[in-house]
Amino acid sequence: MSTVPGLISVRDIGAKGDGASDDTAAFQAALHAFSGLKGRTVIVPPGTYKLTATLHLEDVLLLGQSAGGWPADSNSGPVLVIAHDEPEAFVLGAGASVHGFEIDHVTDAQSTTLKLTRTGPSVTNLKIHKPWIGIACDTKPLEHNPGRLHVANVFMINVRHVGLDVQYTYDVPTIENVEVWISVENLRYQQTAFKFGHNDGLRASNLFAFGCACGYDFYTSEDGFGCWGALESCSTDLTEKAMHVRDASYLAISGGWHLVHHRGLVIDAPRARISINGGVISTNNGPAIEVEAVRQLSVTGLTCRRGQHNDFTLMDLRGAGALSISGCNLDVRAVGAGIRVGQGVRQGVITGNVLTLFNPRAPGAQPPVGIEAGPAVTGANAGTEPVDQPQPSLPDLFNAARQYAVRYQRSGAYPSYGDVTDNDRMASFGIILIEKAFAEAHRIPEADLEALIQGTGVGFDTVEGKFMSSNRWAVAQGFAGGFPTLHTEDGELELVCIAAGMAHHQDVDSAELAPGDGSLGAVELRMQQVDLWARENGGRLGFPNFEQVMIDGRIHYGAVLFGEDVGTRGSLAVEEI
Description:
Blueprint (H helix, E strand, L loop, with lengths): L6 E3 L8 E5 L1 H9 L7 E4 L4 E4 L3 E3 L2 E4 L15 E4 L5 E5 L4 E9 L6 E5 L5 E8 L3 E4 L13 E8 L4 E5 L7 E8 L10 E5 L3 E11 L3 E5 L8 E6 L2 E11 L2 E7 L2 E21 L2 E4 L5 E12 L2 E4 L8 E3 L2 E7 L2 E3 L7 E3 L5 E5 L2 E4 L13 E2 L4 E2 L8 E2 L5 H14 L4 E4 L12 E7 L4 E7 H6 L11 H14 L4 E9 L2 E7 L5 E6 L12 H15 L4 E11 L2 E9 L4 E7 L4
Parallel strand pairs: 1-3, 2-4, 3-6, 4-7, 5-8, 6-9, 7-9, 8-10, 9-11, 10-12, 11-13, 12-14, 13-15, 14-16, 15-17, 16-18, 17-19, 17-20, 18-20, 19-21, 20-22, 21-22, 22-23, 22-24, 23-25, 24-26, 24-27, 25-28, 26-29, 27-30, 28-31, 29-32, 30-33, 31-34
Antiparallel strand pairs: 35-36, 36-43, 37-39, 38-39, 40-42, 41-42
C-alpha cells in the first residue's frame, strides 16, 4: 500500500481485476479514502474490473493508463465492466476526473456511463462500448453547474441512444477529439451523436459522428435557453442528417466535412444568429443547408456537393430573416437549384459564389437554375446561372484510368462512358478495371502496330486506329483481345492484352446499340454503346475494337466481351482526372 497521502491503488484494498470477481466495494473504499484531502488519486492497475453499482467521485482522479495512444482501435489500459442496471455507471462531482480506461456495458440497461454534475469535471482518454448515453450533464437549471468541464480523447462505439449530451454549463465547457462510431449495421441511424442544450461559451472541436441518425443536435433546455458557442472542425460520415439547430443564441461553425444520406445542416431556430465559415457538405437526397427559420445567417467559403440524386436545392433558405452567402462553391449538377431564397427572407446579399454544373452522363445538359431570389436579396450572384464545367478530354481520362489501375495493382483500365456505378462519389466517370490474373501489359513499337491497319482507311494517329491495331496485335499473339492505354513512350504504345479464353469477339448489329449520349464524340459514344449493350446482354463488360462488317446488308460493329471475373466496374472522381 502506498504511504503517500491521497494516493491509493484499488488492488491494495481488495480489487481482483480478474473480470469475474465483484470489485465494486474496493473501488468505493478507494474513492472515499483520504476524504477531505485535495488532489486525491485512485490508481487502477491493468486488469478487468467488474462493477455492480454506481460509483460517485468528488475531488478525486480515477486513473487507469496514465499515458498512451488513442484508445479507439486498441486499448492497453484497464477495463471497467458495467454489470448493473442502475441509471449511471459513474457520477462526477466537483473536481472529479476519470482518465485512461475502456468501459464496457454488458447489459441492455438505459444507463449513462458518466454523469457530470458539478464544476470542473474532466473525462479523458476513454473508450466507451455500448452505452445508452455515453456522457451527459443532465442536471437541473441553476441547481448544479458542470461548467468548465473538459472532455477529450473519447471514443464511443455502438452507442444506443446519445453519445454526449451537454447542457447547463454556464461557463466555457471544452469538448475535443471525441468520436461516436456505430459499427454494427443493425444499430445504425438510430442515435444522436452530440446534443447541446443551454451552454455558455461552448468550445467544441474535432468531433466526429459515424452511422448516426443525427450528428449534432442543438435544442432548448428546460430553462428556456439554447446554446451559444463554437464548433471547429467537427464532421460526420454516413449519417442521415449532419446537424439540426432547433435553438441557439449565437453559434459559430468553422471547417469540418459532412457526408450524409439526406440533409446536411437543418436550421429551425427563429432567434439564432449563425455563422458558417468553410467546410464541405455532401448530401445524397436533400439540401446541404435547409433553413426553416433563423434570425441571421452568414455562410462563407462553404463547399456544397451533390451525391446520389440531383433533384433538390443545395441551399434552401426559406426562412432566413437576414442572410449573407459569399465565397461558396456549389456543385449544382443536372437539375434543381443552387440557392433558393424564400419569401421569408427580409434582406440578404449573395455574392462571389461559384456555381458549377457537372454531370458526366449529360455533359451538354441545359443548366439548371443557379439562384432563385426575390427583390430583398442583392449581390453579383443574384439571378445568375451555373457555369458548365468542361468535359475532360479522352486522353486525360485514359491517363487517369491507367494511373488508377497502377495504384490498385490492376493490369489496366479504360473509361466506359457508361452509368456511374459508385453513386457516393461526386462527378465521376465510369471505368473498367482489368484484373492482373487475366491480362498483361505490353509495349509495342508504334510502327509495327500501324502496319497492321494499313489499307483499312483508319489512320493510326486516331484513337480508333490505336484500338483496332492493338486488338489485332493481341489476337495475332494468341490473346483473346486487347486495348491501348494511349500511353506512349520511346515510340512504343502500351497495350493491355486479355488472356486466351477469357474474352470473345462478337459483331453487334448497330440497330441493337443504344442511341447513347448524342453530345459525346464518335469514340466516346461507341465505347458507351458497347458498354451498355454488354451489360444489358448477360451482365458482361466490353470495349469496341472499331472493326465493322456488313452482315445481311446491315452494319455490325466489333466488340470484345468478357465477364466480371476478368474486369470490374469502378469510377473516377473528376478531381482524380
